[in-house]
Write a structure and sequence with these properties.
Number of strands: 11
Strand order of the largest sheet: 2-1-3-4-5
Distance between the termini: 39 Å
Length: 323
């Protein structure tokens, strides 16, 4: 073992311990003031405007992003820019939340009286409850930490972790009050793999796929050709009304060849597996994935109103990043 590895590990574990303590300490801050802050934001006619400077400003931007994506309209206003014109962002009916560890930054001291003059409710998320910002706030969210994880107790580490978590706590409480659902979440996350998991449906995945199908009387050669040409490793067996009566996979073909000496008279009905797993086209793709996994299969037959529509393959889900 390297002589350097032990101190590094000790430092890393100590940092994690300190940051975990900063999060655990927030439990005592979930008080009446916190409840009033949540209700104030929820009942506001306007938006939540979040401001800060330095590392707190970066935390504020993350909280704004989380709130907007979970149904609470919010925007970020940098404290330094606010006093040089950006204060116009704040409108009547908005709630303002200023984030600061010390609560004594010069920019904060200039900004707070302006907000007070506007008449907007001011929420102070602060790490010093005796500070100027705490005393001026209508409501206080206490994010005090006993010690920064920084060895010099200077660089914002534990304190910004506490701020970040307090922002998440606010967002989740507001989600509950707003009755924010998975369907609502999908509206705000249409892009990327996360969005696809929330809105992409089976019908969207099978549009470009071939639609392999044979009749029960099809010869073995016809079955092999259909599976080979359609390149999905499977074919549905359908009747004259386009209803599925079974499925044949390339695995079914291999097993049939292993146990049969004479294959000249074999037809689709001799090979098919009856009662295959089926899904409707409107099913969410992620739900179809669960069915594939639970049954340890690679394909699903897609039906609508009892009629065969096509095949959903595991590769379709992989291609779209659902898996």
């Amino acid at each position: 073992m390297s002589h350097m590895s032990l101190p590094i590990r000790q430092t890393a574990l100590h940092t994690i311990e300190l940051e975990a303590q900063s999060v655990a300490g927030l439990a005592s801050s979930i008080n009446e003031s916190f409840e009033k802050a949540v209700h104030t934001i929820h009942q506001a006619k306007g938006r939540l405007v979040i401001s800060g400077i330095g590392k707190s400003a970066i935390v504020g931007q993350k909280i704004v992003s989380t709130l907007n994506s979970t149904g609470t309209p919010a925007l970020f206003m940098h404290a330094a820019d606010a006093i040089h014109g950006d204060l116009g962002m704040v409108q009547q009916g908005d709630v303002v939340m200023i984030i600061s560890k010390s609560g004594e930054s010069p920019e904060i001291k200039v900004l707070v009286p302006l907000i007070r003059n506007f008449g907007n409710t001011l929420i102070s998320m602060v790490g010093n409850t005796n500070s100027f910002l705490a005393q001026q706030g209508d409501l206080v969210l206490d994010t005090t930490v006993s010690k920064e994880a920084c060895p010099n107790n200077l660089a914002p580490t534990s304190s910004t972790t506490a701020q970040m978590v307090m922002g998440d706590v606010l967002a989740v409480c507001l989600m509950e009050l707003n009755g924010f659902t998975g369907q609502d979440f999908a509206k705000y996350h249409p892009g990327g793999n996360l969005g696809k998991r929330l809105y992409l449906r089976v019908a969207d995945l099978i549009q470009a796929n071939e639609k392999p199908s044979v009749r029960p009387t099809a010869s073995l050669k016809e079955v092999i050709v259909e599976i080979t040409e359609k390149r999905l490793g499977v074919t549905a067996v359908t009747n004259n009304e386009n209803q599925v009566v079974g499925i044949i996979t390339d695995g079914d073909l291999r097993r049939m060849l292993e146990r049969s000496n004479d294959i000249s008279q074999i037809t689709a009905k001799d090979i098919l597996s009856p009662h295959p797993k089926t899904v409707v086209a409107s099913l969410l793709a992620v739900e179809a994935l669960d069915i594939l996994r639970k049954n340890d299969i690679s394909q699903l037959i897609v039906e609508e109103a009892g009629k065969y529509l096509g095949i959903l393959h595991l590769h379709d889900l992989v291609r779209e990043g659902i898996v």
